[in-house]
Amino acid sequence: MADKSRRTAARSRGKEPDLSPATIKRRYAASGYDLPTHPAHVLRRAHQRATMIFQQLLGGHDVTPTQMAALATILRHGELSQNRLGRLTAMDPSTISIVVRKLLKNGWAQRSGSAEDQRLTIIRLTPEGERFTSDLLAGSVDVGRQVLAPLTPAEQAQFMDMLHRIADGEEERGERKKEGAAVNGGVAAG
Fold first, then answer.
1. Which residues neighbour 86 within 8 Å (Cβ) at sequence distance 6 or greater?
2. Nearest C-alpha neighbor of 107 from the set 89, 94, 126
3. Is the four-CA dihedral 52, 54, 57, 63 of positive or negative sign?
4. How far is CA 18 from CA 12, 33, 50, in A?
5. What is the pTM of this model?
6. Cα-based torsion angle of the residue sequence 95, 101, 105, 110 in order, rounded to the nearest 10 degrees
């Protein structure tokens, strides 16, 4: 009871007493936290491995994975507003702004205003950027192959499906199912 009154008095003064080592151990054990099996930790380690493989295969080209994603997306679509490029590559506005600045600095892309909407900045590849990007596409595909190499082909497909479900979250996944149902005449694609 004295312990409880000390905690109550400490709270009323605005300062919690320090936790004892035994309390810390008990709380830690009760939480179920285990770093080696924590999904966010394992995903971070997998991301580190993917980045390492990217650097081994493409690092000599002075390009990062986010820059490669932007370059390949612009190559595929021709020209895009900076906002749309950010959405297609899943980069927030500040990140895509930094990536685009690097592409411009390296001479791989150019920026101009939109003829239709003066609020939009249009990004397109320069001829050098088109050659640079198209030359690296196969290497980037190889990065993906090496990242997934520890898995069998069936496991790779299953893993990628699950990874997309995690990355998309329930909200986007539900929207994709609705879109699929509408496209397939009301039968959701599974």
1. 92, 93, 95, 96
2. 126
3. negative
4. 15, 21, 41
5. 0.76
6. 120
pLDDT, tens digit (0-9, with 9 covering 90-100), for 24-79: 999 999 999 999 999 999 999 999 999 999 999 999 999 999 999 999 999 999 99
Burial 143-160 (b: 16+ CB within 10 A, else e): beebbbeeeeeeebeeee
State the DSSP code for 20: P
Among 65, 63, 95, which Cα is nearest to 82's? Answer: 95
Q: Return the residue matching tokens 């539900």.
A: 174
Q: What is the pLDDT of residues 128-175, one digit of tens each?
A: 999 999 999 999 999 999 999 999 999 999 999 999 999 998 765 555
Cα three-residue angle 185-84-53, rounded to 5 degrees: 95
Alpha helices in 32-152 (DSSP H): 39-58, 65-77, 82-88, 93-105, 127-148
